[in-house]
Amino acid sequence: MTQADFDFIQSLAYEKTGIVLPERKKHMVYSRLSRRLRHLNLGNFSQYCSHIQRTPDEMINFVNALTTNLTAFFREEHHFKYLESKVIPKWKKNKNRRLRVWSSACSTGEEPYSIAMILEQHFSGVEWDLKVLATDLDTDVLSKASIGSYASDSVTNLPRRYADKYARQTDNGQKVQMRSSVQKMIHFKQLNLLGEWPMKGPFDVIFCRNVLIYFDNETKKKIIARFRKLLSPQGYLFIGHSETLTHISEDFDLIGQTIYRPIGHGDNKLQQTKRSVANL
Ligand SMILES: C[S@@+](CC[C@H](N)C(=O)[O-])C[C@H]1O[C@@H](n2cnc3c(N)ncnc32)[C@H](O)[C@@H]1O
After folding, report:
1. Does residue 87 sit within a domain?
2. 71 lies in some domain
3. Looking at the structure, do residues 111 and 9 belong to the same domain, yes or no?
4. Boundaries of domain holding 247
5. H or E element: which one contains 274?
6. Angstrom distance (rounded) from CA 244 to CA 249
7. Which of 1, 140, 191, 197 could be disulfide-bonded to 135 (CB atoms 3.0-4.6 Å)?
8. Would you name the residues annotated as active-site residues?
9. Which among 24, 46, 66 is the end of a domain?
10. How many domains does one find in the chain?
């Protein structure tokens, strides 16, 4: 791969996905795209760069090859504990029995299934309108997510009470299949965080975890400002363990470990007092 090839790939990835590919990721890019070269019987990266310009359909494979999809059930468990111990008890007191959660970079689905299991566990048998929107840029991961079948060792993180109830063993115990009660709560859809968002909201919670790290500050600012508009004033935004909204947005209060709420949500008296003092 020549420097010119890498520069081309780098700027195309940035333009289409917002993903920043620094020089240190050259090796990763090489190995991920080599599979496409082999598949297309191309001899070098310059040929691949020409191919992608001539063949718009290749873009989807290019993007799918470059995304990093690492995820797990109940990954960063503190968010799920917070949902169960702090958020759900509040929701249960609501007169409005409608809840909307968006998993905005859902990868192979473990995140939205974890959310849906919690909602099903706490609200089943009661008349609630519950929906989880699960979106990702990568069409390959979305296909896997919508099937809802996973290797059984991937559910080791799943609390027993959820595994027994919502993950049915198949293939002689080698796989598990998510039960339809949780599956039907989730709506999987392809969506580029850089592109059009057809949803109107408002969402009660937005999960945007472990994807902001791939973007530069300008892209992060735009996405977070759009989240603010779609999030209910009483809502929650969960981001990944190595991500922060410091220097990205002043529209949110940090209320827990990588947990944010829109300013003015009314629950955080301490933050509000601090702001009033700062404004004196
Ligand atoms: C590391 S995974 C995170 C999965 C999950 N949120 C978690 O924390 O376990 C990052 C996901 O972001 C997706 N992604 C990358 N760029 C994106 C974009 N521009 N729009 C939507 N999704 C994107 C990737 O396809 C990938 O599945």
Report:
1. yes
2. no
3. no
4. 77-271
5. helix 269-279
6. 9
7. 191
8. 32, 136
9. 66
10. 2
- Do 150 and 51 belong to one domain? no
- Residues having CB within 6 Å of any atom of ligand 1: 17-19, 67-71, 75, 105, 107, 111, 136-138, 141, 192-194, 209-211, 214, 240
Q: Look at residue 213 and tell me if it is in a domain.
A: yes
Instruction: Tell how far the Cα of 272 is from the centroid of ligand 1, in angstroms.
Output: 33
Same domain, 117 and 61: no
74: phi > 0 → left, psi -120 to 50 → alpha, else beta; which?
left
Residue 209 in marked binding region: yes
Q: How does pLDDT run along the chain (280 residues), one tens digit per residue?
A: 999 999 999 999 999 999 999 999 999 999 999 999 999 999 999 999 999 999 999 999 999 999 999 999 999 999 999 999 999 999 999 888 999 999 999 999 999 999 999 999 999 867 899 999 999 999 999 999 999 999 999 998 888 889 999 999 999 999 999 999 999 999 999 999 999 999 998 999 999 999 999 999 999 999 999 999 999 999 999 999 999 999 999 999 999 999 999 998 876 555 555 555 555 5
Query: Measured in angstroms, how far is the CA atom of residue 225 from the centroid of ligand 1?
Result: 18
Last residue of a domain, one of 16, 47, 66: 66
CA distance 36 to 63: 11
Judged on CB neighbours under 10 Å (0-12, 13-18, 19+), 247 is: exposed
Residue 109 Cα to ligand 1 midpoint, Å, equals: 11
Residue 90 sits in a domain of what CATH number?
3.40.50.150
Q: Is residue 279 part of a domain?
A: no
State how far the alpha carbon of 93 is from the alpha carbons of 16, 97, 124, 129, 138, in Å: 43, 9, 16, 15, 37
